Amino acid sequence: MAACVASHSIPAEWIPHLDSEWVSLWNDHGRHQYRADEVSVPKYRENPKAYSFTYAAWSGPKVFQEEEFDVPVTKPSGTVRVRVYTPEGPGPFPVHLNYHGGGWVLGGLESEAAWCRSICNNVNIKVIDVDYRMAPEFLFPTAIYDSWDVVKWVWFTLAVSKRVEANSKNDRLVSQRRS
Fold first, then answer.
1. Which of 39, 127, 144, 159 is within CB 3.0–4.6 Å of 43 for a Cys-Cys bond?
2. Within 10 A of 17 (CB to CB), how many other CB atoms are there?
3. What CATH number does the domain containing 74 carry?
4. Nearest Cα residue to 117 out of 66, 178, 175, 49
5. What pLDDT is attached to residue 158?
6. What is the number of other CB atoms lying within 10 angstroms of the CB of residue 73?
7. Which domain, by its residues, includes 21?
């Protein structure tokens, strides 16, 4: 763990207004970490867990099915990986496309995996988590183009294979579990 940085302590005047469990959690696990903005992007990417209080602190619940696909993208051409989380049951399920946070620079399929698993099970929806290409290797607006290409891939590829049901009348996607 990185050395303690004094600025990561909770100001004393805030403590009475915060949940005591959160204060304990922060003091035990969060205040001693360097933040992502305190290190270079390459250093952060070597071990993202070392710079995030929430990154993969919990892997999340098991889901019925997890699959990964390489999706072709166009600007510039290449592929991005998506992870599809499917709940148990016959479906059809609503579909949620998840684009991780990180300012188009940080994050990935692991950074929000616990959240994706939780929302998949708790809301009973199919979650498609997108690992779009990030800066500085891929300049803006590459991530936006990647995101749009994944929307089209879900609509056309998954709908054609009957893994999701496309309802063009309502512009909605619902998921069918594979048998």
1. 39
2. 6
3. 3.40.50.1820
4. 66
5. 64
6. 23
7. 6-51
Characterize the bridge pairing of strands 126-131 and 93-99.
parallel
Strand-by-strand arrangement of the 172-175 sheet = 65-74, 77-86, 126-131, 93-99, 172-175, 164-167
37-59 burial: b if 16+ Cβ within 10 Å, else e: eebeeeebeeebeebbeebeeee
pLDDT one-digit tens code per residue, 50-61: 776 555 567 788
Asked if residue 151 belongs to a domain, the reply is yes
Q: Does residue 39 share a domain with residue 119?
A: no
Q: Are residues 114 and 32 in the same domain?
A: no
Residues 119, 151, single domain; the answer is yes
Tell me how many domains the chain contains: 2
**Nearest-angstrom CA–CA distance, 176 and 71:** 19
